[in-house]
Amino acid sequence: MRSEPEKRSNRLNADKGIDIIGDIHGCFQEYKQLLALLGYAADKDGLFRHPAGRTLLSLGDITSRGPESIPLLTFFIRHINDGLAEMVDSNHGWKIGRWLDGRAVTLAHGDEKVEEEFRAYERSFGTAKARELREASRTLLLTAPSHMQLIRNGAVEAVAVHAGIKDDYIGKESPSVQNFCRYGDVAGVGADGRPIRKDWTLERKANGPLILWGHDPRPEPERKNNTVNIDQGCVFGGMLTAYRFPEDELVSVRAAKNYSGLTDTPLTRCKDYGKIER
């Protein structure tokens, strides 16, 4: 285990527009479909650029559960290094980052699929290439800020975060802020082993900035108290959603399948799931 690297900046200039992407979870094909709908195209070097100079911003959980975590890690390593994208910290990202750092973590809930991908990558490309990718992925994940402030005309107009944030936490970095941003407002564990999640959006201040978040899948994007949930459970057979800022537009693509292998999913447990036309 090494010392944790310094976090990237939690401020992002949004004057040219930001496209915020909900939880991808290894669904790389759906992600590329969404990029095309948003107007991004690959240049001669394979980097996806928008003609208007917009920036991509991931709400985290780019890996785990789905089939193509390594292509997504590679995508964000390259695009963040070239200033074309950013990503915030997340619960799965934090765990995979610590695993890559050699820490004693239990890979479960789809994280074990990332380990399988890295083993296959090493068999295909060799130990040196695999070591290089592991180090770049570790740095990507462990340097992600807990949340991102979107700056437009010099002011914070919106905040992107994985699981949630209190208004008093905006702009700050500390262990308590980071844990809240990764996991939301958790009030223990239920009898079924799942976390008991409190609705942090109910305590939003009326004059606070817009907050874009994911982590807790909903069948459709959900607006509440100046927050928008854009995790539509793509890996569970739902949708992958982007929120276009400042246009206040939502763009989604349907998942090709339920990649998780589960029949009881966060989506099926939503009370409105059966009412959504699929």
Task: Write a short abstract of this structure.
With 278 residues, this protein is α/β, with parallel strands linked by helices. It is 26% helix and 22% strand.
| Large-scale geometry | globular
Q: From N to C, what is the helix and strand string? A: EEHEEEHEHHHEEHEEEEEEE
Q: Roughly how much helix do the residues carry, as a percent range?
A: 25-40%
Number of helices: 6
The CATH architecture can be named as 4-Layer Sandwich
CATH topology: Purple Acid Phosphatase, chain A, domain 2
User: Major sheet: order of its strands?
Assistant: 1-7-8-11-13-12
**What is the number of independent domains?**
1
Would you identify the CATH H-level superfamily?
Metallo-dependent phosphatases
Which class do the helix and strand fractions yield?
alpha/beta
Overview of this protein structure:
The protein is α/β, with parallel strands linked by helices and 278 residues long. It has helices at residues 28-38, 69-81, 91-100, 112-125, 127-142, 175-183, and strands at 11-13, 18-21, 41-42, 48-49, 55-58, 85-87, 147-152, 155-161, 186-189, 195-197, 210-213, 222-224, 227-229, 239-245, 249-254. Helix 2 (69-81) packs across helix 5. The radius of gyration is 18 Å and the shape is globular. The protein starts with 10 loop residues before the first strand and ends in a 24-residue tail after the last strand. The model has no long low-confidence stretch (mean pLDDT 93).
